[in-house]
Each structure stands twice: as structure tokens, then as C-alpha cells.
Amino acid sequence: MNKNESKYFKSAEKMHTALLTLLDSKDFELISVKEICETAGVNRSTFYLHYDNVNDLLQETVEAVYKDFFGRFGAVGPGALDVDEKNEDELFLVTPKYLMPYLDFVEENRKLFYLMYEKNEMMGAEKTYETWFKTIFGPILTRFGVPKKEQPLIMVFYLKGIIGVVTEWVRGGCTESKDEIISVIQKCIIKP
User: Fold this and answer.
1) In the structure, how many helices (H) and strands (E) does the chain have?
2) In this predicted model, what pLDDT tens digit does every residue of 1-48 receive, in sequence order?
3) Which of 34, 52, 70, 191 has its CA 20 to 30 A from that of 184?
4) What's the CATH number of domain 1-52, 1.10.10.60, 1.10.3720.10, 3.30.200.20, 1.10.10.10?
């Protein structure tokens, strides 16, 4: 990466951080380019070099946050699972091992998470989750002998259900403990 590319990415990171900081104190619709630039310490021309509008910044910020999240989650992802292992409890799709990092992430980024689902069409959040579910849960469903043809339908069921529970948790201010939310999710799902 040359010096100009490095500056470009550093400016983008500053604006991502500025947007997340501003989201802690105000609604997304009230955040202006001017505020983002002041908070990030960049010029308006720098903002418009990167983005057409605040929605573009939001979309890229969500992608950056998820990239960071999935990077942290990878340590307990499919590579950590021995899908040939006979221990069915380890292969249950919604163990705390998988859900706790996700719920930690959601709680840390609750405003961004909520905004992402309020603007679902723009953000493409479900596509991100579909990729995640295929990567993490595909090998487990295969291990349980679920036919490949049925796997996308089962994954959509998990995807919609877990997102629904977590979205309601965020709407309520994350007042229940993460252990309580994991328990609720596990009660809703039967092992394959």
C-alpha cells in the first residue's frame, strides 16, 4: 500500500469512527456531513472524495464493523469445529459458544445494529448473515445429514428467528442478560 492509499484508508477509518461516535448521541437522520467531518477531523472535500452521502458512509461503516466482528468470531467458527466429531451437543447450531460473541457484538454496537435493521433494504444485512450462516452452520447441517437441498431453507428459518429475537432485545434496550437471550433462542430451536 502506498502513502496515498494509506492516507485514503486512514481518512475512511476516521469517518467510520466519527459516525459511530455520533450515533451514540443522536439519531442517524440528524447527523450531517459537517458533523462527521468535524468529529473525524477531515475536510468536507475528503468526505466527498470517499462518499456521495451519509448513507454511503453508513453502509461502508457497517461493512467495516462486520469485517472486524467476523475476524474476531473466526476463532470459534467452523475451523474450530471438528464436524466429524460425534458429540452432538458440540454440533448444536445455537450454543453459547456461537451466540455469545454475536450478542456481545450486538450489545457493543446496538445503535448501529438497530439502524441496520431499520434500513434493512439499504444495508443488505440479511446477505451478510446468510454468508455467516452458510460458513458456520453449513458444515454442521451436513454433519447431521441434512440434505443440501434443504439446508438453505433451514438456514433462513434460523436466520429470521435469531435476528427477530435479537432485534426485539435491542429494541428493549438490551435489558435482559445475554444468557437469558441465548436461553430463549435455544428454547425456540429443536436440534436437527
Assistant:
1) 10, 0
2) 555 566 778 899 999 999 988 988 888 889 999 999 999 999 999 999
3) 70
4) 1.10.10.60
**Cα separation values, 132 from 18, 88, 107, 166, 191, Å:** 27, 21, 19, 16, 19
CA distance 153 to 159: 10
- From the list 147, 127, 133, the residue with the least C-alpha distance to 77 is 133
What is the Cα–Cα distance from 72 to 173, expressed in whole angstroms? 24
How many whole angstroms from its chain centre is CA 6? Answer: 26
Give tens-digit pLDDT for 111-135.
877 777 666 555 555 666 666 666 7
* Separation of alpha carbons 56 and 151, rounded Å: 33
Ordered by start, the domain boundaries in the chain are 1-52, 61-188
Per DSSP, 191 falls in state -
Contact 159, 126 (CB under 8 A): yes
Joined grid coordinates for residue 61: 461503516
CA 16 to chain centre: 15
Closest CA to 19 of 47, 57, 51, 76: 57
Locus of grid cell 435476528: 163
